[in-house]
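Batch manifest line 172
LIGAND: magnesium ion
JOB: complex structure
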Amino acid sequence: MLSKKMEEALNEQINAELWSAYLYLSMGMQFENTGLNGVANWFKVQFQEEQAHAEILMNYINQRGGRVLLKPIAAVDTDWATPLDAFKATLVHEQKVTAMINNLYSIAEEEKDYATRERLVWFVNEQVEEEDSAQELIDKFTLIGNDGMGLYTLNQELAARTYTVPSPLSAE
Ligand code: MG
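JOB STATUS: finished
ARTIFACT:
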């Protein structure tokens, strides 16, 4: 059985993951509109990943006999001047998500909820990857600067990204 405090905190995280999904979808739509379909693809895959993060938490709450309560999703930005700006915003956002996951982990420890703590380990590791991939793309877009050929090539590289079902969902 989940404690009320743990259940509420997990529900907050579901909202944060869905907000992330909405943010990346917004980025995807902007870059689709400006013709950078590869960049748009990267964000649309990210949109799917964030929905999966929410789904993992929803499944977990249900498994523990808790109640998933979906809250309103706040508005997201709609304009980023360049892909570099969008990836910088992505990194800042993912750093906030990391802090939220760490806070959830602390609550699980305080509540002596070791099952939740174990479930959160996957998210702790996932955040390392999220921050790393955002940083990698910041580096790449910084490197190409205003070079059109560089942008063309990087856009194509990002077009190749495909969605993979995260292990906690594929194992079920
Ligand atoms: Mg996430």
